[in-house]
Amino acid sequence: xxxxxxxxxxxxxxAGFSQKDPGRTTSFVISGEVKSPVTIMLTDLTKYxxxxxxxxxxxxxxxxxxxxxxxxxxxxxxxxxxKIEINADSPKVLSEFYxxxxxxxxxxxxxxxNELFNSPTGESVFLIxxxxxxKINDLDESxxxxxxxxxxxxxxxxxxxxxxxxxxxx
Length: 170
Description:
This protein has 170 residues and is an alpha+beta fold. The strands form two sheets. The chain has a five-stranded mixed beta sheet. Strands 3, 4, 7, 8 and 9 form a five-stranded antiparallel beta sheet that branches. The protein is built from three helices and ten strands; from the N terminus they run H-E-E-E-E-H-E-E-H-E-E-E-E.
């Protein structure tokens, strides 16, 4: 009886530390330091060139494997952001801007303007359109975003993206 009680306590404790299911999103808003906020729907992502990403191992901050995302396809985040007008007086100040990407559960990741538009990183940050040959509209977990070339991929793997806020560092 004591063993069963200890097992139950351990199970409850473990459940308390596991990540919440962020749910499913069907759109996200780009706002902040922009001329006009924009809502991007799942169907809007089909207007962009779909790129085959392949398999991506999701690792934690220690580099330990957490999951394997198979047969991914996606659109480049920078392609979507390129259509947004940032409140910049001149191109010289674009280096001061960054993008705060937020998930439904509050998880946040950040990319600088230079990372996305002025470095190789921008060629590997994707909004997922297909996973395991399942299209985004049919996925239980969407909208997904991954930075596939990060060393610790889980740090910027976003499930249920709800918003991207454009901010300026001053």
